[in-house]
């Protein structure tokens, strides 16, 4: 069975919703994030250390629960021969269940590589790092460079990964004067050229091997970065994808973070441009006879069910819910779309008793779920642009079709 990544992410999202609701009575729920390259013996040693520390916990109940959680973790660790490719998340703790408490164990293989080892003990499980992995994942290549050093990184969604640091052996220019000065300067330029070639080779290798790279950002202090770009050191495929050069004060790990911060306007423009293009594509189709466009919740759902949708466009302020309602006295069941979930009240159309909400889902989730089954994409469109307003005029839910089904 092969699941598309959107299905994997969707399932994880649902699982996290459940995990988020779990609460211990005290500081007794343990979460472990283990990176793939972490030595399990070291983890085991830390667990033993935590175990001996835990015997100092004052509350008898908390102490007992932390100790049993640690025991379960150590048992599990013994069974693991190899940490999975992306690392492993372990969540263990006692969850109150009516009169009887129960120790619950969750093992999750994350969809992305865990980079930081974390031991966390709290009244709730630590789910934020996993949640971050669910965020939209546009990947950008990052390079900060000057004559002294260079750093290569990747931006995945909101996460920054530093991939490689490159030192330079280019001597600093200083005045000597005369013949030897010129020769010295020529040697410096040769060294700089070799260094730039090296930086470009590493950066090109990293960026070419990154799937779905959306673009490349180059940063650094002064004019070196522009020189580096203008001289075309990078592989032509990478060179083509440069979307901005940005001033940063540093060229180390900190410089990589600066690059992302300082490029925020660029990212915003890209996002806005993408949104504008999508709505414009829809508008072009909708004015044609038999154009590849649909709008309105029901029509879009029908086309989704037929596998005819390429991309669903949904306005960011569509905050309606699809609910399943039931009447407990006569058994009537029905579905509704409502804007206000908490304020929903309706009399049963058959017997007049109050209807109960049995199940609910946001319209966005419902559309996403339908889209997932046929490989359609869902894009949320902000209201900030003129195009966003145009979409709202079409009820806020529209689709660009792959084909127009007959019938
Ligand atoms: Zn009824």
Explain how this protein is built.
With 407 residues, the protein is α+β, with helices and mostly antiparallel strands. It contains twelve helices and 16 strands. It has three domains: 5-134, eRF1 domain 1 (Translation, Eukaryotic Peptide Chain Release Factor Subunit 1, Chain A, 2-Layer Sandwich), CATH 3.30.960; 139-171 and 183-269, Nucleotidyltransferase, domain 5, CATH 3.30.420; 276-401, 60s Ribosomal Protein L30, Chain: A (2-Layer Sandwich). It has helices at residues 5-20, 40-54, 60-79, 128-134, 178-208, 224-230, 236-239, 253-262, 264-286, 297-305, 363-374, 386-393, and strands spanning 29-34, 88-97, 100-108, 118-122, 139-145, 149-156, 159-167, 213-220, 242-247, 293-295, 309-315, 321-326, 333-338, 356-362, 377-381, 397-401. A hairpin with a 2-residue loop joins strand 2 and strand 3. Helix 2 runs antiparallel to helix 3 (60-79). The mean pLDDT is 89.
């Amino acid at each position: 069975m092969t699941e598309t990544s959107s299905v994997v992410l969707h399932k994880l999202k649902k699982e996290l919703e459940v995990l988020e609701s779990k609460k211990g009575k005290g500081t007794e729920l343990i979460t472990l994030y283990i990176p793939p390259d972490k030595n399990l013996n070291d983890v085991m040693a830390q667990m033993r250390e935590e175990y001996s520390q835990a015997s100092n916990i004052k509350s008898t109940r908390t102490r007992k629960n932390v100790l049993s959680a640690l025991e379960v973790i150590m048992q599990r660790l013994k069974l693991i021969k190899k940490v999975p490719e992306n690392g492993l998340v372990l969540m263990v703790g006692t969850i109150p269940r009516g009169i009887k408490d129960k120790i619950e164990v969750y093992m999750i293989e994350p969809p992305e590589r865990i980079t930081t080892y974390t031991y966390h003990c709290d009244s709730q499980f630590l789910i934020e790092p996993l949640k971050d992995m669910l965020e939209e994942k546009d990947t950008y290549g990052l390079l900060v460079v000057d004559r002294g050093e260079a750093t290569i990184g990747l931006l995945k969604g909101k996460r920054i990964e530093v991939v490689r640091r490159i030192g330079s052996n280019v001597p600093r220019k200083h005045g000597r004067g005369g013949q030897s000065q010129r020769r010295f300067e020529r040697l410096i330029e040769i060294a700089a050229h070799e260094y730039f070639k090296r930086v470009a080779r590493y950066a090109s290798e990293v960026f070419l091997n990154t799937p779905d790279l959306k673009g490349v950002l180059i940063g650094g202090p002064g004019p070196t970065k522009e020189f580096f770009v203008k001289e075309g050191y990078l592989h032509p495929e990478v060179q083509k994808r440069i979307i901005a050069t940005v001033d940063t004060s540093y060229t180390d790990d900190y410089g990589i973070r600066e690059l992302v911060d300082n490029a925020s306007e660029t990212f915003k423009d890209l996002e806005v441009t993408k949104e504008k293009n999508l709505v414009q594509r829809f508008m072009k189709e909708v004015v044609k006879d038999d154009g590849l466009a649909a709008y309105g919740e029901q029509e879009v759902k029908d086309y989704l069910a037929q596998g005819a949708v390429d991309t669903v466009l949904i306005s960011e302020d569509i905050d309606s819910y699809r609910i399943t309602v039931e009447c407990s006295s006569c058994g009537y069941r029905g579905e509704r779309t409502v804007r206000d979930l908490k304020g929903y009240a309706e009399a049963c159309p058959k017997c007049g008793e109050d209807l109960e909400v049995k199940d609910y889902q946001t319209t966005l989730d419902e559309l996403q779920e339908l889209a997932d089954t046929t490989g359609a994409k869902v894009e949320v469109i902000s209201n900030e642009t003129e195009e966003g307003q145009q979409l709202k005029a079409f009820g806020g839910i529209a689709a660009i079709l792959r084909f127009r089904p007959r019938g």
